[in-house]
């Protein structure tokens, strides 16, 4: 599996992200519910440092409810509170705003203790490409966009928008550069389109999707995704390798155009047409 990244972009993304993080009190980290482990970058903890972090697991509509519950328990057992959202529709976004507000209360209590005046808490939304950061920002803003201002000393034009009396949000999300050292993760990012500036082959990515779906069906009976594949494209995904499966779809529907079959399968998955499918489960 070859996925090609452009290192210059990654270095630039990392620089920009650190610049954004310097300005804020609280970080809203967005992950993709289909792959909440892969859309976590191991350096986030180090970058966030002592600031507060709110963990948002977005695209909750794309995974089965049972899997959502498993993740909730898994995160809570690790002392984390996951906020599950559908940023496209707005579900769960109010709870995220509430969590950011309670950070504001804590920050201002500390400021008061040090004899400082309270001020709105400043937040930034960060996450891998395409996980729904902009959708979340727009939902948080709703129709209450009030003012925006430029902060000096920042090369890029960063604007603050007021979410409420207590909360200001940087209007540009911070893009987390992709991890380079995990080929399995890279494939999942490609499947979910969370990969940013990378080039990859659709056939190989789609073939991995088919194999992952069969694997997930085995590990989490009841998801039913392999059955959906079968009823949608006809061949049985369990009967062949992922690559053979794409070839079979191409032969039966696209005059042998394998690239087209691969793209179709990936698009159907990304649009949710194959139903709710998780590609990761909490590790045991
Ligand atoms: N089904 C579903 N789609 C979502 C959700 N959140 C965002 N999307 C869709 O996912 C796509 C990407 O969302 P964006 O908000 O642009 O993602 P982003 O992280 O800002 O993307 P970049 O700017 O590329 O880093 C859009 O088509 C959104 O409509 C969600 O919770 N569920």
From TrEMBL:
UniProt binding sites for GTP: 58-61, 174
Tell me which InterPro entries the record gives. Answer: G_CP_dom, GTP-bd, GTP-bd_ortho_bundle_sf, GTP-bd_ribosome_bgen, GTPase_MTG1, P-loop_NTPase
Gene Ontology biological-process annotations: translation
A GO molecular-function annotation: GTPase activity
An annotated GO cellular component: cytoplasm
Which compartments is it annotated to reside in?
Cytoplasm
Question: Keywords of this protein's UniProt record, alphabetized?
Answer: Cytoplasm, GTP-binding, Nucleotide-binding
Query: Where in this chain does the record put each CP-type G domain?
Result: 14-178
Q: Any keyword Nucleotide-binding?
A: yes
Could you tell me the superkingdom of the organism this chain comes from?
Bacteria
- Check the record and name the PROSITE patterns matching this protein: G_CP
By its UniProt entry, which Pfam families does this protein fall under? MMR_HSR1
Gene3D superfamilies with a match to the protein in the record? 1.10.1580.10, P-loop containing nucleotide triphosphate hydrolases
The record's listing under NCBIfam families reads: GTPase_YlqF
Family, according to the entry, reads as follows: Belongs to the TRAFAC class YlqF/YawG GTPase family. MTG1 subfamily.
Q: What does this protein do?
A: Required for a late step of 50S ribosomal subunit assembly. Has GTPase activity.
Q: What's the protein here called?
A: Ribosome biogenesis GTPase A
**UniProt source species:** Oxynema aestuarii AP17
